[in-house]
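Quick review question:
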């Protein structure tokens, strides 16, 4: 198998997760050759991880520009803090040597920056850029998507997604405690779910209404004299251009939950549900009612490493590697437009909470 050389920019928790996933793709020719991070402890932890996985030690750099200039990689994974994505992406896209890019969600923290990345990438058609909205690949989500696309449920009218989970984890220098760094909770965390809503609805967003607050988490934390401003719960309603609607129910102080994510898609003739991490899908039809509801265990036998996201990061890499090897004959499965719109919905939600009104997608895209 021809070798594909990867560089990882940002090797905190998620960067190390990418190293672990790529280690399980060695048989596919994936090899991590270099890493970059200005935080020495993160570099040391990644080198320790590489040793524990019996990987050749990657070359370590303190900055992404040195990594790009080294010529050591063909693909760059950007898993640095959200607020750094824009500068790093522009540097990669504009570098003389072409590098394919997998960028962690969110694409950028603002719509304006996302749009600039989209335009810059159009000038480099030889570069594939995929956005890390890997929840698409979770087996129960993918199975439910398959059911929806088959037409089994009829025309989709409503998509409801509940995420009840634990608070945000501690990150290097606590960057994720503030909206200015993360883009806000609805951008940083919930872009995943807005992406799924678009897929299930088969449509694009028109306007957003949200209500949210900081009610429990981080209220007693202070960093450099500042109290965190990231919301810990919200309801978000998204209206789509085909008349369907989506709703997100987010709570980040709900550790006592059997499932972290519960997704419901209702069409005019049936209903489908997906549950993570139980990894089951339920399908029921209006004609047969409750007694006719079928339960399916969702699995994907291609997964060799579950990792932090139930095998979805492994499948994300597997798919992106296949797209690269196809030399552009099929684009990345999660493209820059997907990344832009997932951020735009999140930005509209954050703005709706601030202003107390519906916010149109055109309003935020014109920023």
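Suggested answer, residue by residue:
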């Amino acid at each position: 198998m021809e070798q594909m050389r990867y560089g990882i920019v940002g090797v905190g928790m998620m960067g190390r997760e990418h190293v672990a996933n790529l280690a399980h793709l060695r048989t596919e020719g994936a090899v991590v050759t270099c890493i970059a991070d200005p935080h020495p402890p993160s570099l040391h932890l990644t080198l320790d991880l590489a040793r524990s996985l019996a990987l050749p030690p990657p070359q370590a750099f303190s900055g992404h520009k040195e990594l790009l200039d080294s010529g050591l990689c063909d693909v760059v994974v950007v898993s640095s803090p959200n607020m750094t994505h824009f500068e790093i992406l522009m540097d990669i896209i504009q570098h003389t040597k072409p590098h394919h890019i997998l960028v962690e969600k969110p694409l950028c923290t603002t719509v304006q920056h996302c749009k600039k990345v989209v335009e810059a990438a159009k000038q480099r058609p030889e570069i594939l850029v995929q956005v890390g909205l890997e929840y698409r690949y979770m087996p129960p989500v993918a199975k439910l998507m398959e059911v929806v696309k088959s037409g089994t449920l009829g025309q989709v009218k409503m998509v409801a997604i509940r995420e009840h989970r634990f608070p945000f984890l501690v990150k290097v220098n606590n960057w994720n405690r503030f909206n200015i760094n993360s883009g806000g909770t609805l951008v940083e965390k919930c872009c995943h779910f807005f992406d799924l809503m678009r897929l299930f609805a088969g449509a694009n967003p028109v306007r957003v209404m949200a209500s949210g607050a900081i009610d429990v988490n981080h209220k007693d934390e202070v960093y450099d004299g500042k109290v965190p401003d990231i919301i810990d719960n919200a309801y978000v309603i998204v209206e789509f251009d085909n008349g369907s609607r989506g709703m997100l129910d987010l709570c980040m102080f709900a550790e006592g939950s059997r499932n972290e994510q519960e997704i419901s898609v209702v069409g005019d003739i049936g209903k489908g549900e997906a549950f993570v991490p139980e990894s089951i899908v339920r399908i029921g039809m209006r004609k047969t009612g409750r007694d006719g509801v079928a339960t399916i265990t969702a699995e994907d036998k291609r997964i060799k490493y579950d990792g932090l996201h139930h095998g979805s990061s492994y499948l994300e890499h597997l798919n992106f590697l296949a797209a690269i090897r196809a030399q552009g004959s099929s684009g990345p499965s999660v493209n820059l437009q997907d990344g832009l719109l997932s951020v735009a919905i999140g930005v509209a939600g954050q703005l709706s909470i601030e202003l107390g009104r519906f916010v149109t997608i055109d309003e935020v895209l014109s920023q």
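Why it works: The first strand starts at residue 4 and ends at 9. The mean pLDDT is 97.
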